[in-house]
Write a structure and sequence with these properties.
Elements (H helix, E strand, L loop, with lengths): L20 E4 L1 E2 L18 E2 L2 H24 L8 H9 L5 H12 L3 E5 L8 H14 L5 E5 L2 H4 L4 H10 L1 E9 L3 H6 L6 H13 L3 E6 L5 H19 L3 E4 L10 H6 L8 H14 L6 E3 L12 E2 L4 H12 L3 H12 L8 H4 L1 H32 L3
Parallel strand pairs: 1-4, 4-5, 5-6, 6-7, 7-8, 8-9
Antiparallel strand pairs: 2-3, 9-10
Helix pairs in contact: 1-3, 1-4, 2-3, 4-6, 8-9, 9-11, 11-12, 13-15
The protein binds iron/sulfur cluster.
Length: 385
């Protein structure tokens, strides 16, 4: 048994790629300057060679075959069953690579996510070669996705992007964050709204699926409206397949934290964020994107739906929150940030949790007033960053 087999994995993947096979094809981020980004700071970008990546694909294949052999030995005919998963996760000699591949086989998503932050930085021919090899070794893969920066995408022609799609890349996730140029500059995103539009349109034209990440809260209290409106405007010109909301958080390790400390950047409160997202959704016009808020840092997960049909439904989710009495909004925020609530309906559906949260809030108020309540809420959200 090759239990010591291992291959390289990067630090992150999008939330919806939790059950994907993770294959690292570049290391870290070649830009690495965005003030709000906690991920690759102090890590140097490097390209991996095609041979190096192919080596990892071969190892991953060996591991997948090894897991199948283990399954047959256990009488499960090559399927990754609970028994197989149990054996791999309890055996100290099965490393991270075994565990992640076993999880992938168990869920059978057929999805592969290429790490890290900006893989279109690879030469088209190299990327095509890697994708072809991946397909050859893993014919069971049906969907390959990756992150890339808009500034990098605009360096590729539609023809190059088509070649990459034909080789197997189905979807690109792009961190749009905002479409408002002064804000893009302020947070050092290194890209303009016009480049975002150009990149997005090219990806769509090349026939790939496009997922654009928007960051509610990024404009702070002074630019929130411009941020919401300009971002919607940019997206209206791209019509990406997916628009994903991922709210801003500012832990100590991100450069923006210094600006918050110095009072130069004022974070949006949860109530302000709800209004900001309302303005954003309101301004999405003439597109057919799927909007999702599945990130744990978002206040209202229910702001999810397909445009244009679900627009009113999404606005209703926000309205319902905004119309709650102050005390209920606070209980919802506390429950949501603590991981107990997913929707404002949970306030009524679960009276026991409601009572518990209410008591906790009263205790915190007695200890240090509203400041202590807000401090606790912030602490709870930041555990997810
Ligand atoms: S481009 Fe993406 S990964 Fe790189 S610093 Fe900016 S947000 Fe972070």
């Amino acid at each position: 048994m090759g239990k010591t087999f291992d291959f390289e994995q990067g630090p992150i993947r999008p939330p919806n790629e939790a059950r994907s096979f993770l294959l690292r094809i570049t290391r870290n981020c070649p830009w690495n300057q965005c003030l709000f980004c906690p991920i690759y700071k102090n890590r140097k970008f490097s390209l991996r060679t095609v041979e190096e990546i192919k080596g990892d694909i071969r190892t991953a294949r060996d591991i997948a075959d090894d897991i199948k052999a283990l399954s047959r030995k256990l009488g499960d005919q090559g399927r990754t069953t609970d028994q197989v998963i149990g054996r791999i996760f309890s055996g100290a000699d099965y490393g991270t690579a075994y565990r992640s591949l076993a999880t992938w086989l168990y869920y059978g998503t057929g999805a592969c996510f290429l790490q890290d932050a900006d893989n279109l930085v690879m030469k088209t021919a190299d990327l095509v070669e890697v994708l072809a090899f991946l397909k050859e070794k893993f014919p069971e893969i049906s969907r390959v996705t990756t992150y890339s920066r808009a500034r990098t995408i605009v360096r590729k022609s539609v023809e190059s992007l088509q070649k990459i799609r034909e080789a197997g890349l189905n979807r690109i996730h792009v961190g749009l964050e905002t479409g408002y140029d002064p804000l893009l500059k302020l947070v050092k995103k290194g890209v303009t709204g016009a480049q975002h539009i150009e990149a997005g349109q090219r990806v769509v034209e090349a026939g790939m699926e496009l997922s654009e990440y928007v960051m509610p809260g990024l404009g702070g209290q002074s630019l929130w409206k411009e941020h919401a409106e300009a971002t919607a405007k940019v997206l209206n010109q791209i019509n990406p397949h997916f628009i994903r909301l991922r709210s801003l958080r500012v832990p100590e390790r991100v450069p923006l934290h210094k600006m918050v400390e110095a009072g130069e950047f004022k974070m949006q409160t949860d109530d302000m964020l709800a209004e900001e997202v309302r303005v954003f959704i309101e301004n999405l016009e003439g597109i057919t994107s799927m909007v999702t808020s599945d990130h744990i840092m978002n206040l209202l997960e229910g702001v999810t739906g397909k445009l244009p049909g679900d627009k009113e439904k999404m606005l209703d989710v926000i309205k319902k929150y905004q119309e709650l009495p102050d005390s209920e909004r606070l209980i919802y925020r506390f429950g949501r940030r603590g991981g107990a609530y997913r929707s404002t309906d949970d306030l009524k559906n679960d009276p026991v949790t409601h009572e518990k949260i209410n008591n906790l809030i009263e205790e915190l108020k007695a200890k240090g007033g509203m400041q202590e309540v807000e401090r606790t809420i912030n602490e709870m959200v930041d555990q997810y960053v």
